[in-house]
Amino acid sequence: MRFVRIAFASIALAAAGATIAAALPKDKALQVMKVRHDGMHSIADALKAIHRGLGATPDLPTVRANSAKLVQLSRAGSYWFPAGTGPEVGKTRAKAEIWQNPEDFASKFRNFQGAVRAFDAAARGNDVAAMNARFADLDGTCKACHDKYRGPEEH
Amino acid sequence: MPRQISRTGGTLIAPERGEQLVWDLPVRLVHWLLATLIAFSWWSVHHHHTDWHIWSGCAILTLLIFRFLWGFFGSSTARWASFVRGPRTIHAYLRGRWVGIGHNPLGALSILALFLAVAVQVGLGLIAQDEDGIYLGPLARLVSSDTSDKARDIHELWFNVILALIVIHLGAIIVYHLRGKHLIKPMITGRTAVESGVEPMHPGRWWVALICLAIAFGIVRWVIAGAPPFGS
After folding, report:
1. B57 min Cα distance to partner chain A (Å)
2. Does position A98 have pLDDT exceeding 70, yes or no?
């Protein structure tokens, strides 16, 4: 499954963390950007599955399975934005502002990770109203970053 | 004055003479609200207000349903049967052999195309989801996630069709203006100069408009709830 590959790829990236922090050769940077791109798509797929699963007749097994994926992906995401993987290197919707405001970006990303954990805690229970409330919080943390740090979709 | 292109090169009958009602209030309100909401829909989605965009789409759906019904039960110039004509009438109009009030046979095609294009756009929006899975159209759960993604892609592209029709619509207004026929003021005041001998507009009834509006609200409320037995 794609998300497992992304999780492993992210761990591999983390292992190489020291070298990444020092200087990022272009091929490594492009590799990170590819993992990030696929990871973001997997997050979107998980969110779509969860959102659909929270309909009038909730599909809780689907919600829980995708919530577990989301937890892994959001953790892996800590390694997706090293310096030197911005639009100056290659095609990406990640804006240069991310690396101009690293603290703000990191804090927003932690908010996202926290919201994912909070949703996952709700998803383990049976209170669908609570899941919907945590899902709305989670959406807010996605949007907070995207509005500021993501460029427009290109066709 | 009949609704045809003036062939006398810009001379216009003084509007005070023989001014009559051509567009009733519901038609004018629908027109200007639709123009405003289409612009707002474009603006909101480009400024990260997807929730406003969806509500705007629901409002447009209400207008479309109302206008569809008013096209059967409304004033004579609002009725589909009164202005949607065949090629023969359009040909006659182009040769200057058409006299009437309301949409001319050629303009009717443009109106019909615009109405259908906006209806398609709303339909796509209802089943679409945003790229992040944060926003679902009210009926998106009735189709698969892939279908919703495709609907969003087409929804984005289809806007170009609407834009093209708006350009044609505005272009036609300019062409008529240059030829001495002013179309904007009648769409505001509802009145236009009409030549004697032209059958006047038969106004619809206000309570029929209210019933059409109530039906439109009811259907849209049902759609917002997620349709069939209130969601899936």
Report:
1. 20
2. yes
Contact yes or no for A48 and B230 at CB 8 A:
no
Q: Which domain holds residue A110?
A: 2-149
Task: Give the mean pLDDT of A96-118.
Answer: 96
In the predicted model, what is the mean pLDDT of residues B153-179?
A: 96
Q: What beta strand segments (E) does B130-206 contain?
A: 191-193
Please report, to the nearest 10 degrees, the dihedral formed by the alpha carbons of residues B169, B174, B180, B185 taken in order. Answer: 70
Cα–Cα dist B113/A124, whole Å: 50
- Quote the minimal CA–CA distance from B185 to chain A in Å: 39
Which ipTM value was assigned to this complex? 0.80
8 Å CB contact between B136 and B148 = yes
Residues in chain A with CB shorter than 8 Å from the CB of B156 are 155
Tally of domains within chain A: 1
CATH number for the domain that contains residue A110: 1.20.120.10
Confidence band for B97, pLDDT divided at 50, 70 and 90 = confident
Nearest CA in chain B to A144: B48
Nearest-angstrom CA–CA distance, B39 and B144: 29
B99-141 pLDDT, tens per residue?
Answer: 888 888 888 999 999 999 999 999 999 999 999 999 999 999 9
> Is residue A154 in some structural domain?
no
Query: Is A67 inside any structural domain?
Result: yes
- Pick one of 3.30.2000.30, 3.30.1360.70, 1.20.950.20, 3.40.630.30 as the CATH number of B23-224: 1.20.950.20
CB-closest option in B134, B141, B231 to A47: B134
In a domain, residue A155? The reply is no
**Residue of B48, B133, B231 lying closest to A44 (CB–CB):** B133
Burial of B6 (0-12, 13-18, 19+ CB in 10 A): middle
Query: What's the whole-model pTM score?
Result: 0.85
pLDDT at A95 over 80: yes
